[in-house]
Specification:
Helix content is 68%, strand content 0%. It is mainly α. It is globular, with a radius of gyration of 19 Å.
Length: 188
Amino acid sequence: MIDQKKYDFVDALRGIAVLLVVLAHTPVPNSLLALNIAGAYGVQLFFVVSAFTLFLSLSARRNTESNPVLFFFLRRFFRIAPAFYFAMLFYLMKDGTGATPWAPQGIQSWQIISTLLFINGWLPDSINAVVPGGWSIAVEMTFYLFVPLCFAVITNVTRASILFVVLVVAGIVANKYLLPSILSPYVA
């Protein structure tokens, strides 16, 4: 077992993040749009806190495991996949492959495969087709793909700042030029 320092503020921040997300999913009058925005901030806070704790874990395991990146992916996969695959089975048995709000023409085999591979979040026609809310697991697994790369690149404040600026610029460019062409088939 890896001896890793525990920070109480991390659990407090996770609690705040979860509370913000739960509030966003609580039935409230439409006038309380701020709660929906709070939910988005809760998800972002959860990812920042997760990145912090995953970096701590990778740092602690770097000198004790023969292949810390491989074991990182294996731990993440077996923490998430069994329950998600169970949810897939549950919803496929419960609802079948007929029409759903997320798959009006019925669930196709490619949507099941993309969900099995956790890439359903990259595909608008598959995002929640099999598992309602399955987009969040796809986002989480995509996040895990990038954690070891970020851990290798972000080694000091200067590198973190440069990466931050590059990603902000890339996000602005993607939202302005790439996003409209991706979403055009789905906008009436």
